[in-house]
Specification:
The complex is a heterodimer of chains A (280) and B (156).
Chain A (H helix, E strand, L loop, with lengths): L7 H8 L4 E4 L5 E3 L3 H6 L4 E3 H24 L7 H20 L7 H17 L7 H8 L13 H33 L8 H40 L4 H41 L4
Antiparallel strand pairs in A: 1-2, 1-3
Helix pairs in contact in A: 1-8, 3-5, 4-5, 5-9, 7-8, 7-9, 8-9
Chain B lengths: L5 H131 L9 H10 L1
Classes of the chains: A mainly alpha (280), B mainly alpha (156).
Chain lengths: 280, 156
């Protein structure tokens, strides 16, 4: 275990640090070698591990589904096609259930969100030390493999969703309709400041809650896996206990990662549906 | 846990993925699913129609069979009647033929008898004349006694 030469807090700290690429305060570009260095890079830095894993997982999803789509026949489906079809049917049904307007983008968007987030969450089930230790052997010091435990990733997605919400609100209701919705409800035009405050919070709460819910759940789950992993350095008894705990938590986590992916997708669809609806 | 450019990297990646999915993954798959749905619906409809057709055909076959049986029975009855008639006709014709043959034979027999009788009569006359001549020891003029002889012949 890596914790042999680290204190528990250093071990946890190490596991929670992203591989960051950016500009050092002295002006040179490169990887950050510690959490403090990463912090010093400020906003103009990038989490290489988060980007790499999320893009890799997203590309895996697109690759598999694209293969299935290319070979899709209306005849007897093969194994891969069956699998892909069942996911498509599932997404299609749930989108039809909660999205009433007509927009060809929403169902593919929901599919992408669900499968992508599910895959990113799934990385949480990989034992916490495997990939970081492997990366260490390859000379990479930090490797956080679960992109959804990085608030940048969850906020990145929820901001994208937010942009779509604003875009479709304006497209469907016109700029006046959109501003009117913000300013003239629920108290009429004389309560405009109160309206703006309430509706503004309402609007901002959507992406924030989307991102924080996913991040919070996955971050907490990852944290528990790291704490369980700490048990392995405590002798035979604690190792066995830790093994049992890890198994139990992993099984429970299967539910959480699927549920969180589903919630993110469903709420996005619902928000987009609200963006398409005229307020009455 | 720093907020940095990763935020926008993720947003861009997300939009690219959604675009790709919307362009190359979702449409062919849903199109295929719709096609399959249509195929299945068509197949079910065809099966239903086939079943219906089969029932109709069965009914029609039964009707045809029944009609054919009736016709056959009719034909057989007609044929039997005709056969009876033919037999009767043949019987009648045979009777007639037999009667005719019998009548012809009877007539011929009578003719033969008559002819034989004529012949015998001639013979007897000659014998009688010869006998009488011998008895009278003289020639009897056959011409002179022709009336007599004829009378005799008539009596025979």
């Amino acid at each position: 275990m890596a914790s042999a030469e680290l204190t528990p807090s250093e071990y946890i700290q190490h596991h929670l640090t992203n591989l960051t690429f950016g500009q050092h305060p002295d002006g040179s570009w490169g990887m950050a070698h510690s959490a403090a260095e990463a912090k010093a890079m400020g906003f103009w830095a990038i989490h290489v591990d988060t980007m790499l894993w999320s893009v890799f997982l997203g590309a895996t999803f697109l690759f598999i589904f694209h293969r299935a789509a290319k070979r899709a026949t209306a005849g007897v489906p093969g194994g891969l096609q069956n699998f892909v079809e069942s996911i498509i049917e599932f997404i299609d049904t749930s989108v039809r259930g909660s999205f009433t307007a007509k927009n060809d983008m929403v169902a593919p968007l929901a599919l992408t969100l669900f499968v992508w987030i599910f895959l990113m969450n799934l990385m949480d089930l990989v034992p916490v030390d495997w990939i970081p230790e492997l990366a260490k052997l390859l000379g990479v010091h930090y490797m956080k493999v679960v992109p959804t435990t990085d608030p940048n990733a969850t906020f990145g997605m929820s901001i994208a969703v937010f942009v779509l919400i604003i875009y479709y609100s304006i497209k469907m209701k016109g700029p006046r309709g959109f501003v009117g919705e913000l300013a003239l409800q629920p108290f009429g035009k004389f309560g405009m400041p109160a309206n703006l405050l309430l509706e503004g919070i309402n609007l901002i709460a959507k992406p924030v809650s989307l991102a924080l819910r996913l991040f919070g759940n996955l971050y907490a789950g990852e944290m528990i896996f790291i704490l369980i992993a700490l048990l392995y350095s405590g002798g035979v008894f604690w190792s066995i206990f830790g093994g049992v705990l890890q198994l139990g938590w992993a099984i429970f986590h299967i539910l959480i990662i699927t549920l969180q992916a589903f919630i993110f997708m469903t709420l996005t669809v619902v928000y987009l549906d609200m963006a398409h609806q005229e307020h009455h | 846990m720093n907020i940095n450019m990763t935020l926008f990297g993720q947003s861009i990646a997300f939009f690219v993925f959604v675009w790709f999915c919307m362009k190359f993954i979702w449409p062919p798959l849903t199109k295929m699913l719709d096609e399959r749905k249509q195929t299945i619906a068509d197949g079910l409809a065809a099966a239903e129609k086939g079943k219906h057709d089969e029932e109709l055909a069965k009914k029609r076959a039964l009707e045809t069979l029944k009609k054919a049986k009736e016709q056959a029975a009719e034909i057989i009855a007609g044929a039997q009647k005709r056969a009876g008639e033919i037999v009767d006709e043949a019987k009648g014709a045979a009777h007639q033929e037999a009667d005719r043959i019998k009548a012809a034979a009877t007539a011929e027999l009578e003719q033969e008898v008559n002819r034989a009788r004529e012949h015998l009569r001639g013979e007897v006359v000659s014998l009688a004349v010869a006998g009488a001549g011998r008895v009278l020891k003289r020639e009897i003029d056959a011409k002179a006694n022709e009336d007599l002889l004829k009378d005799l012949v008539a009596q025979l």
